Write the structure tokens for this entry.
Amino acid sequence: MFKSHVSLDLNAVQEITYRWTMPRDTLTKPQIIRTAIELLDAEGLEGLNMRDLGDRLGSAATAVYWHVNSKDRLVRLAGDEVWNEIELPDLQAVAWRAAATTMAKGLYAMLTRHPWLVQAFGTHPVYGPGKARYDEHSFAVYEMAGFVGAELERALAAVFMFVLGSALGQAAEVGLRRRLSREGVDAEERIQQTVARASAIAKRFPRLRARIKTGVPVKYGSAPARSFELGLEAILDGLESRLRGRRTRNSRARSKKSSRS
């Protein structure tokens, strides 16, 4: 009996020693970051912990810390890595508006694939080579359109904030469902109860009541179909109109100057 306990204790010590020393030889930072992204996608920002990450990697949490130093730094690294998923269009092959559309849609798709990133913007200073790569190409796109100086910054910000706001609704719904599930609540049932209460409140107001009577469903955290596409087109239409207006003014100014001379 004594020998059995000694054997088990030795096995446990060997396992701990193996898990402690193994990562320096086998784990890599990119591997840790990719696995962290998978965990964040599955569990959200609140669900990321080094022990679960270590289990996914077949390693000890202390070994993960050895590579990335802290959980906060890991979130920043993972948050920057996902920016590399966005396709950057060839500016020699497409016009600026097509390029801007591709990049905005790519950003929206990335944010909805990784809804935890929207939350991370408010808690972590996420910036690195991946985000810089996207920003650099964005500046090139809007410079190609003809925007300069402060107007360039505002054009970029207008599109980015629209995309971020559009992704926020889906991120909020994912976060709510995850929180309710952690609390042992039937997420679908709770959301349907909330929608039912929202419908009851909406019936007090004539325009909202009319929409409900037509059978338009009340939803939580989601916009009507093609809302993103319509909003993006409207913003780009507005930016294009500003460019045309400026060109027209400049052309008239040149004509007046030429006629005077």
Q: What stands out?
A: Confidence is low (pLDDT under 50) at residues 1-8, 13-23. The chain is about 75% helix and 0% strand. The chain has three domains: 2-69, 83-179+225-260, 186-223. Residues 83-179+225-260 form a domain with the Tetracycline Repressor; domain 2 fold (CATH 1.10.357.10).
